[in-house]
Amino acid sequence: MIINFSVKNFRSIKNEVILEFNASSDKDHPNFITETKYCNILNAAAVYGLNASGKSNLVRAMQLFSILLNSSVRNETLLAQLIVPFAFDNQSTEMASEFNINFISENVRYEYGFSADRQQIYSEWLYAYPNKKAQLLFTREWQNNRYEYKFGLNYKGDKKRLEEITKNTALFLSVAQSFDKQETASIIKNWFAKFFIENLHLSGNIEIGKSRTIDFIQRGLVTHNEVIQFLTESDLSIVHFDIKEDETSDEQLPAALKEFFVKNQIKKQPIVITEHHVNNSPYQLTLNDESSGTQQMFNFAALVVLVLKNGGVLVIDELNNFLHPLLVKHIVGLFGNLETNPQRAQLIFTTHETSIMTTDFLRRDQIWFCDKSKEQSTMLYSAQEFSPRKTDNLEKAYLAGRYGAIPIFTN
Fold first, then answer.
1. Is the overall model pTM greater than 0.85, yes or no?
2. CA-based nearest residue to 361, from 324, 406, 386, 325
3. Three-point CA angle 222, 225, 231, nearest 5°
4. Are strands 367-372 and 240-244 parallel, antiparallel or unpaired?
5. Which of these, 71, 183, 369, 409, has the minimum number of CB atoms within 10 Å of its CB?
6. Which residues is 271 bridged to in the sheet?
7. Selection from 108, 256, 129, 250 nearest residue 186 by Cα
């Protein structure tokens, strides 16, 4: 579980912002809390804010963290592709971006982070807290045109070899996960294997979500029945669906389109056929003929089912896209229910859906806001900082501007 995540000098984020999951002493909604020996941790957090305030950049920072950890060992261009410093400050553009996460894996708290620019990694660190006191596993610092490594007594592995093969564009831990059987690297790799981020609107390709759900079913990560159950419990009237190969002949495609597919090695995607029962008669539609909201729920289905079943962290940018407010509430509520979330998975989501901004549903420390400073940098803060009363109408107060993070119109 995530205890907190911080990022500095990345896109619209200039100064460090911290998203915190350490629960307050608030006694409301205990099902949204998981007790650990370190602290009580929230199972869900909502991030609100006006457009261009940096909500999506917070999600991008988490995604960058995960991508570099998993893939920088194999791809030397990732830093150049992904690292973007704060642009509205001449000093920031020359400084490294910094990322840090505190999390619990196998009942042990870890702190892992790094700093980097578009050319190289400058520092990297990993600490464990098996008994609440920090134990060094390793640090890596760029000094005098070379890396200085320090290893703790509990880091067991081929340190010298890993130092030699770790390039300046790769995270040491990414290399260790790939080439070393060291226990700590494996533990962290397994934890991040359950760290999922959904921001399809950023990629501009809604087909990714559909393909992922199909892939998860075909690989046996989730079952067909589990996805059906998720959809029917969401009141979408789909009683069954089939996954079929696209039998459209290439000869039916326009020549230019066929050439594009061949040139880019694009394969035809499977077709999802949904089934509805109306007046005791079955009717079928392709998923593409379903509403945008139904398609979105199908896209979410495999991820939500998998994370709730196995535990982990699910991050969704703009959860409310195409969805009715009660569907948003339904998805969030699954993570605050001991029966549907027995593994105590976490949900982090950005949204504009204010109807769930109520103490009848969420705790005050679960509600976060993104706003812009005068220098156009992202600020992140919790509703808890305003000490709202339990009887306060948070939605009304937010829309009235009491917490900031809303657009201010000039006319």
1. yes
2. 325
3. 95
4. unpaired
5. 409
6. 244
7. 108
